[in-house]
What we know:
Layout: H1 2-28, E1 33-43, E2 46-55, E3 60-62, E4 75-80, E5 84-93, E6 97-101, E7 106-112, E8 114-123, E9 127-136, E10 138-139, E11 148-157, E12 162-165, H2 175-181, H3 195-210, H4 218-227, H5 232-280, H6 282-299, H7 309-318, H8 324-337, H9 339-353, H10 360-381, H11 394-422, H12 429-447, H13 464-480, H14 544-554, E13 558-563, H15 568-578, H16 581-590, E14 592-597, E15 610-611, E16 617-618, H17 621-633, E17 640-644, H18 661-677
Parallel strand pairs: 13-14
Antiparallel strand pairs: 1-2, 2-8, 3-7, 3-10, 4-9, 5-8, 6-7, 9-11, 11-12, 13-17, 15-16
Amino acid sequence: MNMIRFSKIMRSLLVACSILTAALSFAQEQPVVRWTAAAESAGDNLYRVELRAVIEPGWHVYDLGPYQDGPNPTVIAFKSDGGAVAEGDLQIFGTPVKIYDDIFEMEIGYFEKEARFVQQFRLTAPEATVTAAVEYMACNDQTCLPPSEEEFVLQLKGDGAVVGELPEEKPAGTEESVATEAPAAAKDAAGSKGLWALLIEAVLWGFAALLTPCVFPMVPMTVSYFLKGEGGPAMGRLRAALYGIFIVALYTLPIAAIILITRLIGGDAVTADIFNWIATHWLPNIIFFLVFMLFAASFFGAFEITMPSWMVNKSDEKADSKGLSGIFFLALTLVLVSFSCTGPIVGSVLIKSTSGEFWTPIITMLAFSIAFALPFTLFALFPSMLKKLPKSGGWLNSVKVVIGFIEVALGFKFLSVADQTYHWGLLDREIYLAVWIVVFTLMGLYLLGKIKFSHDSDLPYIGVGRLALSIVVFSFVVYLIPGMWGAPLKGLSGYLPPLATQDFVIGQTTVSASPSAADGNAAGRPKYADFLHLPHGLEGFFDLKEAEAYAAKVDKPLFIDFTGHGCVNCREMEARVWSDPRVLQILKNDYVICALYADDKMVLPESDWVTTDTGKVLKSLGKINSYYALKTYGVNAQPYYVLQGRDGKTLVEPRGYDLDVENFIGFLEAGAAAYRAR
């Protein structure tokens, strides 16, 4: 019976991993709204033309509206070649969900899972062609994709035969087009790495936490306790598995509860605003920077950060009780005792994931805690593996110190975000690189035993492992050094300040793009060019109206780049895609560039303020640009690229984050060709 219970526990662990994988797969899959059209003879030359949308779970399309100054409703238009006439009004099958939207301050309706519309036509000739056009916008709780269009052609014949056809090119919104063209609107607005990268990093941090002096000695102690308990080895394994599950729950459930409560009380907009505030405002970024430095100092041995002793003692007392409660409090004791080592690691995992969707911190913490708790279960299953564990010793403190160096390096990223969004000019690229070079050089010297901290043991010689790690660290330092003279360092583009903030770049030449000094504003240069810059020496605009006027003057399409100072994916696109000579050539010769920063905190003159549809006055450049992106294109994610033609018309489907250079070149070329064809 005990073994049966144990197998159930192990299956629970596997289910947790499966949930994590399934959640990730759903998070990265682009939403799909599949439209189909069909016609059915109702006799007496009457036909029912039906349009049906199958909507992926979690997504919706708005109903027919109309909504003045509101969201984009679904628009359905029929056109006949004259052989058939519409009879009656468009019929809607199914009741849309009705809610009051606080953002638009109106009641709106939308369809989930499925939407069906039927229009009757009566033949006035032996046969007729009816074209059905649909324009719709797909949204979820966090973001919206740009409006998409579908068109269907149906042949109605007097003998009841019906032929329906799709256009040769797959319209936006079908499975194929979404996979290649739909923008990465679900990407983070503040620039977090891809979700897979976040999860891998969380797992690695989870394993790294096990190697700290607060945790590592407890592995054999707790496993031995379970194996020697009442009920024999089988019951010990069962209790150890529960121990691992409780550890996962203690790390994951509080985070999930906080996020979900915030979401339920304040709604999606409040959760998104909180995450955006955390990602871009100077206050949380400075706090994170100081916390990272504080924990790094603790790792170096300056002091020890611990949970209150009364809390630890109370939990430890209850751990002596039998049953599930005792196992739970034993897990709680581990979490509390190991806080001084796991606290900064948990903070790193959470802070880096708050730039994504609302569930990203929950999933990343689940990944971290599973990796952290897994060894306790594995060693209980295979106790003979305990003999192969290295003995506790000074190497544990060395691991702690190395993590401290990494915390220092990562902490400067938060200071950099605040510096970029508020234009303080404190941490330009060369200063940032200098800090990293010094930090990792000191780490390498520490690994070689040239630097010693207060809690370190004597190191008469270094082992092969420390030598190999020091080689890796010094190789990284050598990689960083050319960046001081302008090397792009593409592998770190998401972490470093933009190259435009660097004072000196060897061989840097300014690419003559669209505007010259005389074509800018009254000051002789484009607006905001005194504190905003484009990468790779490109020149352009940072105000849409100014850019549109210049594009009309030189008769070129407009390349609109919705970007952000704290956007990691934006920097990666610029470093890995924009840097390609072919891309630069197209941007230089065929487009007028306009970069719209969605997180810039510069307060504009009152004449440039924007009042939203709800009466809210937007004063900062970033909020104005973000509002424009959301209202016009239904997105709040960066990077987001729009190719605009005459009269503000979009030339091709906009794009988001995609590191495929050939795809991006095809995107630019298609936009230029569409501009010439109109």
